[in-house]
Amino acid sequence: MLVECASPECNPQRLSDLPLGKPDWSVLIPLAEEHGVVVLLAERVLREQKSSVPQEVRQKLQEKRRDLFLFALSLMAELFRLLESFREAGMEALVVKGPALSARAYGDASMRRYEDVDLLVRQRDVTRFAELMTGRGYESKVPLSAIAAGTVPGEYVFRWPNTNRRIELHTEQTLRYFPRPLPVGEFFKRKISLSFDAHTVPALCAEDELLLDCIHSAKHFWERFMWIADVAALVSRQKNLDWDRAFLTARQVGAERMLCLGLLLATETLQVKLPGEIERVIRSDQGAQRLAAEITRRLPSGRFARRTLLERASFRVRMRGALLPGLSYLLRLTLSPTEEDWTGNGRKEKIGLFTALRRPLRLARKYRREGSD
């Protein structure tokens, strides 16, 4: 059911042929939430098969759809205010993922589940952004003194007090899972404007958004069906994608296999139709095909099927393509400290060689604990 509901070409007849009156909704709805596609489930079922669904299930789906809609509205309202503040201060940020991806892929900024708003900014400007946001009342997860000193976390997180509203700033240095440095200047040059809720929002071009989404999903091992649905919806809805540009940028940052894998998952799981030449390119990558088969097998278990540390390492190496670039990529990720490494007991520690060398030991302990849970 989730596959059919998430398909860009959802077929009402195929949906009606499913035993909608008999599924265990107490299993199906939590599964949809775990994979981030509960809104797609609600939209398809309530529009196409409403009369076949028990009343209490319809009510539950309507409540979840409404709750996510209201949460998205609150995030977008704050996003619009922030962007206006940035413009007044002469500061430039691009909206990535979240509402921008939802609007572009599904035609509705509230159709996709997201828990925060992600903004791409230049590393050189991050201190100014942090000062502006804390001046507006946001609480910074990373102390301003650490930001000013040049400490780079996994992302710069800002939370509005006593709420779930969260803004995350990303830069060319925080996006560590790009195999090579992010060409942030080129991303800003290719930016576009998206319009929703009578507001204009600066965003990545569709090709750069596609690549960033594939790299982000690879970072998380494609454990959630939502990420595959996003790729499928994006390439299906954006009819004029510049495929040469997409693959050129992927080669530039060493992420060709990550892009191929995302497209393979979209075609094989959700039957997305791609141009013939692109189909040939992605299917010529045997390593990507093996990874796609592995991800598809694990997908029903989602994040409950924890990968061991060695499995995670193997995935990172294979995602990069060839063995030597893969090992280099894995080594860099393993030795690149994040805030979990340089913050302890509320005290910022000095970053150095010892911090980097200690990181593999922390990761080993972390994933050993998770594996025993």
Summarize the structure.
The protein is built from 19 helices and 9 strands. By secondary structure, the chain is an alpha+beta fold. A hairpin with a 6-residue loop joins β4 and β5.
Structural class: alpha+beta
Low-confidence stretches: 344-351
Going across the major beta sheet, what is the strand order? Answer: 1-2-5-4-3
- The separation of the N and C termini measures 30 Å
Number of domains: 2
Number of helices: 19
| Name given to the CATH architecture of the largest domain | 2-Layer Sandwich
Number of strands: 9
What coarse outline follows from CA principal-axis ratios?
Answer: globular
Protein model, in words:
By secondary structure, the chain is α+β, with helices and mostly antiparallel strands. It folds into two domains: 64-305, 2-Layer Sandwich (Beta Polymerase, domain 2), CATH 3.30.460; 311-373, no CATH class. It is 58% helix and 9% strand. The protein has 19 helices and nine strands. The chain has helices spanning 2-6, 12-17, 25-34, 38-48, 55-88, 98-106, 126-135, 144-148, 184-189, 206-219, 225-237, 243-252, 256-270, 276-283, 286-298, 309-320, 323-335, 339-342, 353-372; strands spanning 94-96, 117-120, 139-140, 156-159, 166-170, 192-196, 199-203, 343-344, 347-348. Helix 11 crosses helix 13 (256-270). The longest helix has 34 residues, at 55-88. It is globular and about 60 Å long. It starts with a helix and ends with a helix.
